Amino acid sequence: MAYVKETALIGGRFKLGPAGGRKPTEFVGVVGSAQEQIEQSEIRIPDTTSPLSGTWDSLAKIDRFILNIQFREINSRVLSSLLYADVTEVPSDTITGEEVELAVGMTTALDKMPLTITAVTGPGDVEYQEDEDWRMTGAGIEVLPDSDLATAIEGSAEPFIATVDYTSATFDAVEVLTNSGKEWYLLFEGSNAVGQKGRFNGHYWRVKFQPTESRDVIGVDDFMALPAVCEVLREDSRASAAGDPKSAYARLDKEKIVG
Question: Which entry of 35, 98, 203, 224 is 20 to 30 Å from 231 by CA?
């Protein structure tokens, strides 16, 4: 039988779909690295028949089958999985007369992410000008010092309430820690650049992400990363009868190049 080179240099795409497998899946973005890890514990009885001891018998028990994945894109579906969050797409809207409290040199967030601000109006229907009195920030508006608006705020003996007219951007609202974690079917479609140069697919029928322990909020020296621990759980619909080698946890498909 001819020798077959089996070296591997594998890249590919991870995709998520409904738990159980064989359902439509969606690409989750570039993954920096992914490692399978099996955690086990051992039950051991020492050999007391010999003064030199040793092992009479032992049993290794699998405790957990996990994947350590480093996501490199802040896909909303990935964020929702790692932060146990619910994600709602908020469409662009026109908001008129939203009341906000303003302070000099400080930023006040608006209810929705602003795209453009058309008017900022103070008590007495006094309208203040962009870049002279205030400027738009990523989340709301900031009052500029030494402006007419700053003078009005500093002369007020109570909280300064203004109204804002604006158009909001379309955005995803990721409400963190609002559920106990969703379960997914995780599909890996990979290909090998060396050796047999075949495809390599991984099916993880039922997985659950643990809440992320760390997440870059600012990253300027490298692309931001989302480290994740994903536990592979038992999928009973894929459990096999005695003597049947089918797994209730995962299946790896390795293509063989024939000819």
Answer: 224
